[in-house]
Amino acid sequence: MNKIGLIAGNRQFPLLFSAAAKKNNYYVVAIAIKGDTSTWISRYADKVYWLGLREFGRIFDIFKQEGITKVIMAGQISPRRLFSREVEADSQLKGLLDSLKDKKADTIFGAIAGKLKDNGLELMDSTIFIKDLLPSKGVLTELEPPPELWQDVNFGLELAKAVAGLDIGQSVAVKDKAVVA
Length: 181
Prior knowledge:
Radius of gyration: 19 Å
Order of helices and strands: EHEHEHEHHHEHEE
Mean pLDDT: 94
């Protein structure tokens, strides 16, 4: 049986991933983050290690011990925790965060991906087993939007990309090319 490592943050994504990986005959070894990961992860992953952020350095040893070479990250770690005493208690995590030009999500994920690679771990696409849960490109409703609505859709899409890139949100609401939320 194939093994895969999961660094599990909060919300449903880690649970969905674990269930799908098991359906694809993978043995899931999860690193669950205390205070963020749902306790339900124990129902979906084959083996779970509960770690606090102060134990960041153990992730690499655990995956090595378990014979894991492929890893995914799913779910969020609460951003406020980046400024907690937990980070100060782990020299590897503190050093990693202190070395970053900024603490935007993409920057942090990139640094963690680099650390995984440095430890002989391959970071996989987190949607590898759940493609069927992702919406397809195109109209997802019964009616095709009229041309003027498509103008708002395209306008809003560009704004949403910019907002996401600034790490201040993931969506916008637009009407007549005006941001309403």
